[in-house]
Predict the structure.
Amino acid sequence: MSGHSKWATIKHKKGATDAKRAKVFAKLIRQVEVAAREGGPDPDMNPSLRTMFQKARDASVPLDTIKQAIKRATGGNEGVAYESITYEGYAPGGVALIVEVLTDNRNRSGSDVKSTFTKRGGSMAEPGAVAWQFDRKGSLLVDGAVEEDDLMMAAIDAGAEDIEREGDAWRVTTGPTDLHAVRTAIEEAGHKVTSGDLVMIAQNHVPLEDVGSAKKTLDLVDALDDLDDVQAVFGNFDIADDILEQLA
């Protein structure tokens, strides 16, 4: 698994401060609202909402808070209209980055993303210049206590494409439309899924082989991810475990 996924996992484990938690909750609630507004309030009939609902629950967003967000989005009130935008760019060293945004102000978000790229030594790219290097996939993180054969039996039969060890967990990759079915099969087999989401996975990776170049790339990724309107940042970098440990 790429250094990008490892770093995301490390950040998830370290991001338990109240301020960080509040920002994560706010982003997840925004995703729930957008999914509900676009596809309706019933998760069984709205796959996007089902995914975002479960993603919010994985992050321990209170159930009442999620239900209120769905009600707010579908209750007939005007509310805030969010727009989904994808920005593309490069980190120092030529690493490709995809930045997914939900915003009520395109100009503000575009300015914030561009400024962050510039300040951190990166550069923006034209639409399509980077996206072709990535594939949209479903990604599940499963408790590592399960035996690989048992996990494979449940996941592959349900449509999983790949299973790979990632630290003390398993990373299960699916097609974008198979995420829910694979998760359901794994959980029905008695295995614990700790998180699940739709992600962009790079087809090939750029190795960052020294602490300096790795730090510059991760500083940019973290700065982008910290912007209020940014929902996710994906990159095609690969960082060795020993360098990641130093940076973590």
Q: What stands out?
A: The chain has a mean pLDDT of 89. The beta strands are 83-90, 96-103, 123-125, 134-143, 160-166, 169-174, 193-202, 206-208, 230-235, 237-239. The chain has three domains: 3-74, 83-132+205-247, 134-202.
